[in-house]
Amino acid sequence: MRRIAGGGAAEVFLARARSVAGFEKHVALKMVHARLANDPEATRRLIDEARLTSRLRHRNIVQVIDLGEFEGRHYIAMEYVDGIDLAKLIERLKPVHALPSPKVASYITRELCEGLEHAHRATDADARPLRIVHRDVSPSNVLLSYDGEVKLADFGLARSTDQPSSTQAGVIKGKYPYLSPEQVRGHAVDARSDVFAAAAVLYELALGQPPFPDAPLPLLLERISRGLIEDPARVRPGLPESFLAMLRRGLHPDPAERYQSARDFGEALSAFIFTEGPPPEQELVRLIELVAETRHHQMSPLAANLPTQLSDEVTRIEPFADIRARFASGIRAPSHPTSDQPPAPPPPEALSAFFDDPAPEPAAPTPAAPEPLPEPAAVPVPVPQPPVVKRPSYVAPARYAPLTPPPPSPSRRRPWLALVALSVAALTLAGWLLRAR
């Protein structure tokens, strides 16, 4: 149906699985890139990922449904998580200068740790431990559904005892800001390396930046190998001391000083969550709704009459090309043209507010001095009211119905109705007077 995401070796599509009696279900298809369709190594890695992930059945792990081939390209059919990934959530919170509360950040990481613990303890058919290590835990691989579910995805770099290692000497696999020190040093990794990555995800959730900020690659790897993280108490003052203690222990450069398993880390997170009040599932859902509100505000200058529920439900189901053409034609073709001049095309940045795919970039403006950003506030925060936007000069197409119905027009038959009512009342009164005499 449409492309969801893509990486260096594979891409993911939203697809519709059909069966008998009109049965349909949305699934996610992870396929080898077309340019790598004839690469046996890329195909082998995809098959290994399918075999490994098929043994994992947990509510916090994206489930594998099938492994197949189409026109020479292998694919994995997986559970489709209707929502956004954690990296996109963090990115969309930046325009409103909001951050998850420590309780919500701990809840997301606790759910992530439960999925990791299941993978770390998985066994084969003979009950032998597989000792799976994900090796690529990062916000982009943590999926959030619109109902508040947290699911770990992409075991493409995972290592297991039943698979020969494909990592060459001196080659680092994974995203640099979330690598553990032992990964950078080239040492053997175990479950504690995933614990470090989960703590790095928690750090970014709570503070709005990864523990190792952007730097030239040699300097970045040096900081990671020595465990030189920025003190979280300085980056975001006011965090609870127990929360800071969990961060510092989870990000300790020495694996022996960290939490020794994802379960230990998850239990510490659970203890902190319960000391902060009720479980934060609903708070997480409100946080995702805040992101949706932000996206609606970005769309409002484009078409003031758009229904409030338009944003994601349409773009998730319709093909991307059809959506872009439909909205573009809706802007370019007013309902009541008043002149012979062709309407101006919409600005590229307006269309880009609808879609995750990048739109053509406008000409670079004259650089201005950066303005200091306000201090990030903890969520829950009051949802900012949408700015008063001057309605565009064009008339919205007829298919975009107004949000509120127009007042009913006065009927021309009302004087006749009034005359008939008066006549009936007069006859009734006359009959009553006659009977009284």
Q: How are the elements arranged and paired?
A:
Layout: E1 2-6, E2 10-18, E3 24-32, H1 40-53, E4 64-70, E5 73-79, E6 83-85, H2 86-93, E7 98-99, H3 102-120, E8 142-145, E9 150-152, H4 181-185, H5 191-207, H6 217-226, H7 232-235, H8 241-250, H9 262-275, H10 281-299, H11 311-317, H12 320-332, H13 348-352, E10 377-378, H14 414-436
Parallel strand pairs: 7-10
Antiparallel strand pairs: 1-2, 2-3, 3-5, 4-5, 6-8, 8-9
Helix pairs in contact: 3-5, 3-9, 8-9
Describe the structure.
With 437 residues, the chain is of the alpha+beta class. It has 2 domains: 1-80, Phosphorylase Kinase, domain 1 (2-Layer Sandwich); 84-165 and 172-331 and 376-387, Transferase(Phosphotransferase) domain 1 (Transferase(Phosphotransferase), domain 1). It has helices at residues 40-53, 86-93, 102-120, 181-185, 191-207, 217-226, 232-235, 241-250, 262-275, 281-299, 311-317, 320-332, 348-352, 414-436, and strands spanning 2-6, 10-18, 24-32, 64-70, 73-79, 83-85, 98-99, 142-145, 150-152, 377-378. A 5-stranded antiparallel β-sheet has the order 1-2-3-5-4, covered by helices on one side. Strands 6-8-9 form a 3-stranded antiparallel β-sheet. The protein is extended, with a radius of gyration of 29 Å. The N and C termini lie far apart (84 Å).
